[in-house]
Amino acid sequence: MNRPCPRFIVAALRGGAGKTTLAVAMAMALRQQGITVSPFKKGPDYIDAAWLSRAASGPCCNLDTFLMGDEQVVRSFSRHAAEDTVSIIEGNRGLFDGVNAEGEFSTAELAKLLHAPVILVVDCDKVTRTAAAMVLGCLRLDPAVDLRGVILSRVNGSRHASVIRRSIEEETGLSVYGIVPRLPDLPFVQRHLGLIPPEEHHFVKRALERAEAIARDYLDIPALLTTAQSASPWMVDAFPNTIRPTSAHEPPLTVGVIRDSAFQFYYQENLEALTDRGARVVRISALADAVLPPVDALYIGGGFPETHASRLSANEPFRLCLKQAAEDGLPVYAECGGFMYLGESLTVGGRCYPMAGALPVSFNMEEHPQGHGYTSLAVDRENPFFSPGARISGHEFHYCRIVSHRQEDTHTAFRVLKGSGIDGRREGLCRKNILAGFTHVHALGTPEWADAILEKARQHRNEKHSLEGNINMMRRFQHAAD
User: What are the structural domains of the chain?
Assistant: First the structure.
């Protein structure tokens, strides 16, 4: 069935051109007019997605053909591009930038897959007519990309704006949908992994209001809305949901998710993959909670434990409780920041902070990235969650490295085919029912991930109940003997 699906992609000539600020501004402006926005982020990104989620007041989903494949991207977009909404899809890097010279997995390829019009953000710093040449190059490099309009950014005055606008409109035939000057008070601040996440931003409401003001003062929102509405109808239910939830005859499995300002990197679809299969997801804070609540499995995503190291270390009761639960066989899956938290210590700026101690490794924060980009892994050893012989696609971006590792009771589960992993060759450290590493996975590209977590959770719950039953039986025998 086809239905209207207003949508457009916000792209740019390069990374760092202000796409996120403008995409957030558009979402805020549309919401101000009473229009519901469905936000999406192209590529493996958590922080931009978090800001888009705040702006749209709804979850932002990621669309990445490397991690998920074309079919799963279409399936996810069909599920989350709700009717009677405008879908804003923020691209990543430059429009045609992919993993190779052909631009594979680029924003342009996503635009063609989703039949989405593209709005191109052009950084006009120190250029005039050359801006038209760059836009013209984008038009001609791949005519199948539906490039509809341009937003001029970092414009230096009205004369500068007039020359660039006339050049672009006359040479390319595209409309200019916004002229944004140099702004000394941009609402979002950069840090080493990109923008500071909203969970750590001290003035989230003020930042969003500033973004809305940028849209109001400098963007042609009616023209952007018309562009979105001109997108072709979208086929819904082309790929029906084939997930089968857990049996209604058993109580739902409980998966704890440590999610606070220290651990905030979770794909919306990963959490949905667990709930779609019937799990009950419980949110936990390693900063505020004194104990780990009763759960059948634990998922610790990435984040910034280095900026919260003092508070994480100070919450010793929670650290000890988590360590004991892991010793008792609790299934734990951890990515990047979660991996760092499971170690014995994290050194930041020369100061060493004790962490959970569930893994015999210590970490140090470095000045330069230790892993950055897509990863491909081959599963070649037994581990709690993946079958040997499987291949996993993921991504990594971290400044942390292992500085000590006692081999006792541990082994790695993956051979690195692409990326850095733990040491350039291996990834995925295992101990008991723990699997932890620097790689992030996306549940739509790795569907066995959610299945494995819940299967391991079920095993753990059954073993725990069996043990509790044996203990109770022994107590009854002892009582009878007395």
Answer: 2-235 (3.40.50.300), 254-466 (3.40.50.880)
Residues 105 and 68 sit within 8 Å (Cβ to Cβ): no
- Whether 402 and 423 have beta carbons less than 8 Å apart is answered as yes
Beta-carbon contacts of residue 215 (< 8 Å; ≥ 6 apart): 22, 25, 26, 28, 29, 221
Q: Note the pTM of the prediction, 2 decimals.
A: 0.90
Convert the pLDDT of each residue in 201-233 to its tens digit.
667 888 899 999 999 999 999 999 999 999 999
CB neighbour class for 432 (10 Å; exposed up to 12, middle 13-18, buried from 19): middle
Report pLDDT digits (tens) over 372-391.
999 999 999 999 999 999 99
Extract the tokens encoding 302.
């990435």
- Would you call 295 helix, strand, or coil by DSSP? coil
Residues recognised as catalytic = 336
| Three-state DSSP class for residue 399 | coil
Predicted confidence band of residue 235 (pLDDT cuts 50, 70, 90): confident
From the CB of residue 163, how many other CB atoms can be counted at a distance below 10 Å? 17
Cα–Cα distance for residue pair 66/445, rounded to 1 Å: 8
Rg (CA), the chain: 24
Task: Please give the helix or strand (H or E) that residue 319 lies within, else none.
Answer: helix 316-327
pLDDT of residue 364: 97
